[in-house]
Amino acid sequence: MFECFRDGAGEVLKRRNYLDDFGRFYESDIDLLAKIERGQTFKEQGSPSWDAFAAGDWAGALRLIEAERDSVAAYFQDTARRGLAFRRLRIVEFPVTSYLQWEMNSFRLRSELGEEIRVLDAREIAGLERDGPLPEVVILGSSVMYAVIYDEELKGAGARRFTDPEQIATTVTEFEFLYRKGEEFSEFFGREIAPLGPPAVRRPPSADTPTGT
C-alpha cells in the first residue's frame, strides 16, 4: 500500500509553495479532503494553543482551543455548503505522547463541528510498515495529493506533490480501507484521552539554569 510514495517520489515543494498550491486546489471543485497522520509529535507553527502547551500551560492550551470554536464552526459550515467531506485518519502509538494528548483535544472540537475523524492503533498497520512508516498524506479530491515533509525540528517544511490520476485513485482506495478500520474519534477520546491528567512537557533549560557536566 502507498507504494507511489516510496523512494522520495513526487515533485518537491517548499513550505510556501506547498501552502499556495494546496490553497489553489482546495478552492477548486473538490469533494474530499483526506489526511493520514502518522508521526507522534510535531511542532505546530502558528498555533497559540500549541505554544501554550509547549510552555507547560495546559489550562491555557485548552482555553485557546475552545476560543477557536466560532472560526472552526464557520469553516465546517463552509465545507458542508460546498459538499466537501473532510476525513482524517490518525495513527496512534501507546502510550500516547504529550503532543498527541494536546492534538486529540484539538481534534475533539473539530470532530464536534464536522470533521470526520477516526483513530487507528499503530499495531494494526505493522505489516504495512516493514519498509518504513506510512507517509503523512493529504488528498484533495481526484486533483492532487501530497506527502508532507518535516524538517529536523519536526516543523512542516513542504511536501512532495503527486497529480497522476491513477496514483490518486489508488491512494484514495487505500485510505478508505484503513479509514474503515479505524475507531470513531469520540469513542477513542472518551476511553483513552479524557481520563488523562495534564501532560508532562519537557522544556529546554533557560540560559541561567545549570546543566551539569
Q: What is the rounded Rg?
A: 18 Å
The strand order across the widest sheet is 1-7-6-5-2-3-4-8
Distance between the termini: 48 Å
Instruction: Point out poorly predicted stretches.
Output: 204-213
Approximately how much beta-strand content do the residues carry?
Answer: 15-25%
Helix content: 25-40%
H/E series: EHEHHHEHEEEEHEH
Care to count the β-strands? 8
Overall spatial form: globular
Structural class: alpha+beta
**Average pLDDT taken over every residue:** 94
Major pleated sheet: 8 strands, mixed
Q: How many helical elements?
A: 7
Task: Write up what this structure looks like.
The chain has seven helices and eight strands, in the order E-H-E-H-H-H-E-H-E-E-E-E-H-E-H. It is an alpha+beta fold. The protein has an eight-stranded mixed sheet with strand order 1-7-6-5-2-3-4-8, with helices on both faces. Mean pLDDT is 94; it is low at 204-213.
